[in-house]
Write a structure and sequence with these properties.
Two copies of one chain form a homodimer. Chain A has 212 residues and is α/β, with parallel strands linked by helices. In chain A, 32% of the residues lie in helices and 23% in strands. Chain A has a seven-stranded mixed β-sheet with strand order 3-2-1-4-6-5-7, with helices on both faces. In chain A, β9 and β10 form a beta hairpin. The longest helix of chain A is centred in the first third of the chain and has 21 residues. The first copy, chain A, is globular. The N and C termini of chain A lie far apart (43 Å). The relative contact order of chain A is 0.16. Chains A and B meet through α5 and α6 of A and α5 and α6 of B.
Chain lengths: 212, 212
């Protein structure tokens, strides 16, 4: 089956909730390596990808569309243009594997959705993208289920820790350091991050200082 | 295939990291309803269960063995006594479903393991329990992989948000309130907990006050 992935991406000053542990330059680099992990997994499923970026961005592994409007507006501009099933996947899912994405793509429902921890939406796959629209932010997981219902689309909720774990906060780095298999994990280890057990609990350290 | 589940359980003063939001009595009740959700899912897979409890406890849906020693000692006392495949599952996994457990039980490896968020181990399934021993606490997920390797056991790591999400901290309640399907979720809603979107982010409230 041929299909296409949309990956929203913010190249400038991304991941501000990581500001306490990463400088702006580091956050921009870290966001890029997380994006690479996502694109690589997407491409390994045989799927092509388009980045929806908020500013100019060079990428050899995906098409790039610069869109100045907000996240929802950009996605909802793109969706009706598809003539094939479409996946919307966030760029901050560095635990992603092609195998985890296959679970999403092999749904026999009209669409599949993977919630993010905390009520967000990490992956949406919809066979008829023109019938769906996105409403991210807040409790978007519930909102997306409602939108699907209103549109008469059947939905599979896919159970995947790898796809539910988005990296927003310093505490999310633990999962990436344990379970990551790609560039983002490597980037952290290459930048002084390490895991340590302290008083029976697992901690993230950087250059000897406890972060989480 | 016939197999048996071991569920460690602490009836008295459990879940102390929830003390800020639940009284001791409430924590004991909440721990019991979470345990019920786990036992129900286990039983729906066709599996029988034994609780390893730290003190006397009445339960009609499972066998009960009171063990005064520590968690690891209790489990490692029980494991070699099995003459069938065994699952060790934590009692604080109220997102569990029989379907998620089936993914674990259907492994074609010698054992399957589900990590907990933060480096712990939430579920272990081992076909020859006498070849394995448990070492919980700290970075137990890594330790359990090492133990399997030393014992020459092949391992599948099962990717499941439902089974990776253990409820320890107030922030974990969000996932239960969104994705729970059993008694524990009902218990929270029956005790004044609710979800609310505040400034675009999902919050847990209790009786009008923001908890997380």
């Amino acid at each position: 089956m041929y299909f296409h992935a949309l990956i929203p991406f913010k190249p400038k000053n991304p991941k501000t909730r990581l500001s306490a542990v990463l400088s702006q330059e580091e956050r921009e680099e870290f966001a890029r390596v997380m994006l690479c992990d996502v694109i690589n997994a997407v491409n390994r499923t045989g799927c092509t990808a388009t980045l929806l970026t908020t500013s100019k961005y060079e990428c050899h592994e995906a098409l790039v569309a610069v869109r100045k409007e907000g996240l929802n507006e950009a996605i909802n501009w793109a969706l009706p243009q598809f003539h094939c099933p479409a996946m919307i996947i966030m760029s901050d899912l560095p635990l992603v594997t092609a195998g985890a994405l296959q679970k999403v793509l092999s749904t026999d429902k009209d669409m599949a959705i993977v919630p993010g921890l905390g009520g967000g939406t990490n992956v949406i796959f919809v066979k008829k993208p023109e019938k769906f629209h996105a409403e991210y932010y807040g409790f978007s997981f519930r909102r997306h289920l409602e939108i699907a219902k209103e549109a008469g689309l059947s939905v599979e909720i896919v159970d995947s820790m790898r796809l539910s774990t988005d990296v927003d906060e310093p505490s999310d780095l633990v999962e990436l350091m344990i379970h990551g298999r790609g560039l983002a994990r490597e980037w952290l280890y290459g930048h002084g991050f390490e895991l340590n057990v302290e008083n029976g609990r697992l901690k993230v350290m950087r250059n000897g200082e406890t972060i989480v």
